[in-house]
Amino acid sequence: MKHTVSVLVENKPGALARVSTMFARRAFNIESLSVGPTERHDVSRITLRVDCERHSIEQIEKQMHKLVNVLRVSELEPGEAVERELALIKVHAPADKRHELVALAEVFHARVADLGADALIFEVVGSPEELDSFEELVRPYGVKEMARTGRIGLGRSSATTTPLRKQHV
Amino acid sequence: MSGSKKMLGADAVLRSLEVEGVETVFGIPGGAVLPIYDAFARGSTVRHVLARHEQGAGHMAQGLARASGKVGVAFATSGPGATNLVTPIADAWMDSTPLVCVTGQVRSHLIGTDAFQECDITGVTMPIVKHSWLVQDVEELPSIMKAAFHVARTGRCGPVLVDIPRDIQEAELSFKYPDSVDLPGWKPPTKAHPRQIREAASRIANADKPMLYVGGGTLNGDAMAELLELAELWRLPVVTTLMGKSAFPETHELFMGWPGMHGPKWSNYATNKCDLLVAVGSRFDDRVTGKLSAFAPGADVIHLDIDSAEIGKLRHADVPVVGPLKQILHGITAELRKLHATGARTKTEPWLRQIAEWREEFPLRYAKGGDFMKPQTVLETLQALTADRDDVIFSTGVGQHQMWAMQYLLCNQPRTFITSGGLGTMGFGIPSAIGAKAARPDATVVCVDGDGCFQMTCQELATATLEQLPIVVVLVNNGYLGMVQQWQSLFFEDRLSQVHLTHQVPDYQALAEAYGAAGFTVTSEGDLEGALAEALTCGRTAVVDCRVDPREGVFPMIPTGAAAIDMLEFQDPQGAMA
Ligand SMILES: Cc1ncc(C[n+]2csc(CCOP(=O)(O)OP(=O)(O)O)c2C)c(N)n1
Ligand SMILES: [Mg+2]
Question: pLDDT per residue over B283-296, tens digit each?
Fold first, then answer.
């Protein structure tokens, strides 16, 4: 089962390395990881997508809590959170296919970020699942290269994300 | 401290140690720590013990910490000095020993350039420290030192590292040691949940066959008195892991030995057939549990620990209680007293009688006779010579001798058995004994070592003799990497591969004497007691080379992956019991 974990860390040198080292050392698999600033200049947010059992997501959270730079760990529950990702996809696009492609892109609100002689780059933002579908659709045209940011997320405005206890039980 | 004082970074390091109450540190100087060592030369109340290898310095700091409950401190230079500390750091990580390592680093502007003796030691040690700091601003040095000590000893104890570039040591700051730490992300549990404590107490009160399964966390949490009180109040039997050894008086009628791979069969029976397993600062290590799914299969589990990540890591806890063990055990005892007042009584007497029967039925056994003195005899004799003393501390190496030490030495005083449990570091014995001696100059410190282990850290005998930190090394010399030989013999059809060391090389007595220590060679049982007695009382560092049977095995034994209850037993070749 996949989980999205949102981690607030002190914006200190090595904080990201400590989190990712812990994952590697405990043999937890990271599917995607993204890190960036937050509303506070001294705090960064790391969003991790991990594939594991319930039992090990608890282990992951508890082990993460023990890291000195980690301020808060919360799991983003599906439905209770907004999750987004950005992808840049370079698609093979000879002149005769371009119209078709651009029409397709419109359905996904994908933007043409760059246009070349026989290729174009789509910029698409959406839920990771939407990005998967879009990628699938353009694949038959020939995907030359792709870059994705990995997901980021926030708990919905109505519900606060469940902060995982710094102190357990 | 009020007011601030101008000084160099190097001096700030020592002033910080002084404020922390550190009395002794261990280390070896080098280029990147010259300013700090110059500060030592200019004077400090902190005693610096010069080791002969940084690994030794690290293990000495661990030995000090384990014998005293205080934070151990080790110093090393950058690069190779720092990498030599990696083994003690890993060892302290596995055994949760509070340790502050201070390393020098190349000058700030050279970091990242592959400068001479540059090593990214914070990177190398990242998976095996609680936290580490690379000091980038000299003004931050006091708060980092304060934080380092705080993190090392709060929550689950463990190692931290402070890496200080040379230019930071030489820079000036206005020194003021902070009164508190500013670590917004560090909030170890300080109070256990009263509801969980009540629940634990009521389960214990109702259990027919409870067992307190005590680990090293009890010693780290300084909860030995509370443990004793709880066990005595409700007549609860106690087993301790290798790391928990000495947390409970071992000649006490409620003490039931040590579960695990080489624990006595009756101890493993008692642990595995209980109906309520109360884990007290223990972590269900595979060397204790054997096959996990077959470990104490009929028991509910109460898990008491300061580290919530241990709860449910390997075994589901029916009642988890997270917090300081001292407080938790005290709380459970208080609840049981209340229950007692309402008429509740312990039900453990039949269970205690059952364990006593197993104890009768399955004693530790070995066969005497043959050409060689038996290693077990060495340990039995050492035990007999020290039995009525409460001022003896043991340390060990890793291997068969370590297991015999666990089986035959009975420790009644807390913190008197210092061994490398989690990492299993050969060579731990001698330096950790020296560190223990620094912490407890009043005590007689005895290192039970193997011949293989001895050769990994014996250069520290020079530290022992020259720094007036005398220790007694009882060398269980079987001429082999014995534990490996035992596995090859049991599981690889006795094809011995690269395990023979010989009894004679080196000549341990001569080597001891070369280091300024007293040396003894014992080849027969008749000379054993005399030599050990003399070594224990001579007041000098001494090495007693006890040449023992090269092919003796440690029994009983749980083969890896087997259920703890299916132990391999000692097979007497003559069919006789001894
Ligand atoms: C540093 C290190 N290297 C290798 C091992 C693997 N090992 C475990 S016990 C052992 C043999 C120890 O020999 P010795 O000190 O003579 O003790 P004995 O088992 O003979 O009592 C070895 C090689 C280890 N635990 N630590
Ligand atoms: Mg040996």
Answer: 999 999 999 999 99
CB proximity list for B370: less than 8 A, separation 6 or greater: B549
Of the listed ranges A105-109, B25-29, B323-327, B335-339, the least confidently predicted one is: A105-109
Statement to judge: residues B284 and B393 lie in one domain: no
Reading the block at residue B425, the tokens are: 């570091």
Dihedrals phi, psi of B162, to nearest 5 degrees:
-120, 115
Is the pTM higher than 0.90? The answer reads: yes
What are chain A's domains? 2-76 (3.30.70.260), 82-152 (3.30.70.1150)
* Number of neighbours of residue B222 by Cβ within 10 angstroms: 15
The answer to whether the CB of B476 is under 6 A from ligand 1 is yes
Q: Is the CB of B424 under 6 A from ligand 1?
A: yes
pLDDT digits (tens, 9 = 90+) for B537-573: 999 999 999 999 999 999 999 998 899 889 888 887 6
Find the residue in A nearest to B155 (Cα). Answer: A66
Per-chain mean pLDDT for chain B: 97
Q: Does the beta carbon of B479 sit less than 6 angstroms from any atom of ligand 1?
A: no
Instruction: List residues bridging with B509 in a β-sheet.
Output: none
Model pLDDT for residues A89-130, shown as the tens digit of each residue: 999 999 999 999 999 999 999 999 999 999 999 999 999 999
The domain in which residue B106 lies consists of: 5-175
> Which residue among A55, A58, A71 places its CB closest to the CB of B185?
A71
CB–CB contact B155 A55 (8 Å): no
Calpha distance B480→B450 (Å, rounded): 9
Q: Give A66-98 as a DSSP string.
A: TSTTEEEEEEE-TTSEEEEEEEEEEEE--HHHH
In the reported structure, the alpha carbon of residue B55 is separated from the centroid of ligand 1 by a whole-number distance in angstroms of 16
Based on the domain organization, do B110 and B30 belong to the same domain?
A: yes
Is the CB of residue B455 below 6 angstroms from any atom belonging to ligand 1?
Answer: no
ipTM of the complex: 0.91
Say if residues B253 and B246 touch (Cβ distance below 8 Å): no
B122, B253: one domain: no
- Percentage of chain B exceeding pLDDT 90: 96
| Residues in chain B within 8 Å Cβ distance of A13 | 134, 136
- CATH number assigned to the domain comprising residue B345: 3.40.50.1220
Residue A52's pLDDT band (cuts 50, 70, 90): confident
Closest to B85 measured CA to CA, from B25, B42, B173, B41: B25
Which atom belonging to ligand 1 lies closest to the Cα atom of B501? 16
